[in-house]
Amino acid sequence: MFRKTPLLVAILMLAFIACTSKKEAEDAAKKSPTPSEAAAPQPEVHGTEVKAIELTNPLNKEWVSAGKVNYELKCLACHKLSNEKLVGPGWAGVTKRREPLWIMNMITNVDMMLEKDPEAQKMLEECLVRMPNQNISQEDARKLIEFMRSNDGEK
Amino acid sequence: MKYNHLLLCLAAAIALPAILVTPSCKPQNPVSAVEGDAAQKVYVAPGKYDEFYNIVSGGFNGQVAVYGIPSGRLLRIVPVFSQFPENGWGFSEETKPMLNTSHGFVPWDDAHHIALSTTNGEHDGRWAFVNGNNTPRIARISLSTFRTEEIIEIPNSSGNHSSPFLTENTEYAVAGTRFSYPMDDDDSNPDVDISTYKQNFKGTVSFIGIDKETGRMGVSFQVLLTGVNFDLSRGGRGPSKDWFFFSCYNTEQANTLLEVNASQKDKDFIMALNWKKCEEYVKAGKGKKSKVTYAHNVYDEKTHSATSTMEHETIVLDPKELKDIVYFMPCPKSPHGCDVDPTGEYICGSGKLAAIIPVFSFSKIQKAIADKSFEGEFDGIPVLKYDAVLHGEVKKPGLGPLHTEFDGKGFAYTSFFVSSEIVKWNIEKLEVVDRVPTYYSIGHLSVPGGPTRKPHGKYVIAYNKITKDRYLPTGPELTQSAQLYDISGDKMKLLLDFPTTGEPHYAEAIPASLVTPKSVKFFKIEENNHPYVAKGEKEAKVFREGNKVHVNMTSIRSHFTPDNIEGVKMGDEVYFHVTNLEQDWDVPHGFAVKGANNAEILIMPGETCTLKWVPDRVGVFPIYCTDFCSALHQEMQGYVRVSPRGSNTPLSFSTGNKAEPTGGAK
Questions:
Q1: Which has more pLDDT, B14 or A104?
Q2: Domains observed in chain A
């Protein structure tokens, strides 16, 4: 027992040193800018949760065509307009299957959805590719929904 | 013997618990030992950012590297003058023009000095400039994309060493000839006897104008000078902002065995040049037009492509006729660094072979010029009296002074190559106050903001020429390295060694807060004006123009469109124009094809890059993504079928099409 004491003291001392330096290191780390503090990036439109959207009839034709342009530029690579799954699910019937708000947030806030929303997580398990953030503004996302509604036969 | 020495050192280390690490068994004084809190001072916790960007030229690798300070972590290699197969720089069709010169394609250089753009003499975080010493060039790198945006060749020049230092508001970058050469009118380099150096060889210093908004460069004017070696330079600031200072060696004008023959005189020169006055003379039409040929290469962020244009004219000023633009100041002996302090009053010369550091006073220079305190002329240029322009000398500071940087608190930090140390001294009093060893043979050094009106201080970084025993050996060629010292207290303290890519030649360090907020995350696909862009898979196509086959293809996690291409024939040149459709940060895609004789390419989100491929045999060849992009990255692949010359396989392309070939000619 007695013999072991110096070793114990040494261990305690080491632990003390380790704790001190860990704390100081953490303090030092706090002082250096974190990613969120330092970054005030180029207009980042992704990541704000949309709380409500309004649907009106008849469809806004300008939005439908603007939505189509954006679909062809940023979505078509993975989503067909039929119900055939490519990388992601086909869009046929999507506005019937999903709440428009859910679709809005998948487009504009996919990171939050994949983190929190069980339905979105289920899709990731099926597709295995995270839906990319394509930096689509809320305004443009709303137009995409108009295009989806048109694709689902709404007038 | 060596082993005994090691044991002794070990014993000493154990005996002195305060010294936790003995960095080397060289003769040392106590400050060479790293102190206990050094690790904490350089520790940047996982996920946290460094406080400074350190922009470091790579010497013989022709590139620029970016490190975080204080951690010393390598963040990025920016290819500049050298081809970089890792991302296709200088190999892709878009970037090949960047390396064009009047000598044709020169895919390498010797990159020496960094100059960060300033406004009112303070860092503004817009651009980094770097010089190519070999084929005289200056490059401009954007600090928002960390890409080389422009390279301009310097006409009437050879060995662009004293470059690309800047005037206070980044009006000009300078370029000076290290290698004088026989220069006659109109940029020809005549066939003369080398021994006629004194009669025929000339040097120039060039002022490269920089557009305030775009950063675009142009050769504004050149000053024709006598044949000596222009070594380093600095722009004035504050009261001296209209002036530029250049160190000159080989005033002996030797053309052989310079090691001996250029070390004869006790004093060479620092040249003081009034660029503002030069500007006036140019405006007044006092310059002479010189017919030259030089390449001007510009990268356009919207077309994602570079163009190379040959320019044919410069304006040359002759100081033998324009008497009040250039003066020489005697400076002991073979001066190298020529550094202006933050106040703009003091110019520190570093005579490589002198045992003093002379400090010149700008106000005395002005007075000496007004009083005509000349001791004579050198090739028609007035030489000011040494005593009339001298603030004073730092006596016995060390051996082989090279470069000086400043902390803004009245102290200067000079590197000493021969005695391998940094010496801190008081500028006003000319007194040495501290010294630390470097491991080993320091060249340049950098204090964050050191060459500006407002240094950020805190650290000095040593860029060493030799590492010898500091790192695990890797055969005859060892890593190059830098060392970080804390200068926040009275005494300099060694904190960290960190290895570098290439030879870390010169560097500047800038607070992250001036750069990070402007960092571009992706290129907007809507703004992509590349002639072969495919904005969406609908625009993907393959078409033929004679023997050229253009593939306008897209990439997105995780497939290419098209990914099956047929109808390519032997004798064709295939151009893969790959557009990355992603619009998120940090999602590049790669593109590679079997047997490509050039490189792979990396395409950033929203960008289009082109890889040229000339098939050398018939068959089916894979194409695939080389940058791990998603869980299905290994699936990101396709095939190109190459048929024999003259075969009738129709040109076709598809993705996800199991049976019927789609498409055809344009």
A1: A104
A2: 61-151 (1.10.760.10)
**Mutation site, A21, A46, A74, A75, interface B, largest B CB count within 10 A:** A74
DSSP symbol at A74? I
Q: Assign 3-class secondary structure to B534-586.
A: CCCHHHCEEEEECCEEEEEEEEECCEEECCEEEEEECCCEEEEEEEECCCCCC
> What strands, in cross-sheet order, belong to the sheet with B493-500?
B442-446, B459-464, B480-486, B493-500
E strand or H helix at B305: strand B305-317
Q: How confident is the model at residue B25 (pLDDT cuts 50, 70, 90)?
A: very low
As beta bridge partners, residue B55 has B66, B508
Task: Say if residue B164 is preceded by a cis peptide, omega within 30 of 0.
Answer: yes
Is the bond preceding B440 in cis, omega lying within 30 degrees of 0? yes
Instruction: Output b/e per residue, A81-95; b: 16+ Cβ within 10 A.
Output: beeeebbbbebbebb
SS3 annotation, B595-661: CCCCCCEEECCCCEEEEEECCCCCEEEEEECCCCCCCCHHHCEEEEEEECCCCCCCCEEECCCCCCC
User: Do B165 and B113 meet the contact criterion of CB atoms below 8 Å apart?
Assistant: yes
Q: Please answer whether residues B422 and B442 qualify as being in contact, where contact means their C-beta atoms are separated by less than 8 angstroms.
A: yes
Q: Cβ contacts (< 8 Å) between A78 and chain B: which residues?
A: 556
**What residue has token string 């036969």?**
A153
Determine contact, residues B204/B225, Cβ cutoff 8 Å: yes
d(CA B355, CA B368): 25
Q: What is the ipTM of this complex?
A: 0.77
Closest Cα of chain B to A140: distance in Å?
Answer: 13
Measure Cα distances from B82 to B59, B151, B249, B431, B440 in Å. 11, 12, 29, 43, 27
How do the domains of chain B map onto residue ranges?
Answer: 2-31, 532-654
Task: Tell me whether residues B48 and A77 touch, CB distance under 8 A.
Answer: no
With CB atoms and an 8 Å threshold, state whether A133 touches B584.
yes
**Rounded to a whole number, what is the largest CA-CA distance in chain A?**
89
φ, ψ at A72 (rounded to 5°) = -70, -30
- If we measure between CA atoms, which residue out of B369, B381, B373 comes closest to residue B326? B381
- Spelled out in words, what is the top-level CATH class assigned to the domain B532-654? mainly beta
For residues A41-45, give the mean pLDDT: 58
Beta-bridged to residue B548, according to DSSP, are B545, B573
Residue scoring higher pLDDT (A29 or B513): B513
Residue corresponding to tokens 């940023």: A74
CB atoms within 10 A of CB A139: 11
Question: Distance between CA B60 and CA B132 in Å, rounded?
Answer: 10
pLDDT score at A45: 66
Q: How many Å apart are CA A102 and CA B239, to the nearest integer?
A: 63
pLDDT tens per residue across span B393-438: 999 999 999 999 999 999 999 999 999 999 999 999 999 999 999 9
User: What is the pTM (predicted TM-score) of this model?
Assistant: 0.89
Give the model's confidence band at B136: pLDDT under 50 very low, under 70 low, under 90 confident, else very high.
Answer: very high
Q: What is the pLDDT of residues B148-169, one digit of tens each?
A: 999 999 999 999 999 999 999 9
Q: Of B97, B26, B80, B205, whose CA–CA distance to B505 is shortest?
A: B80
CB contact under 8 A, A87 and B512: no
A-B CB pairs within 8 A amount to 101
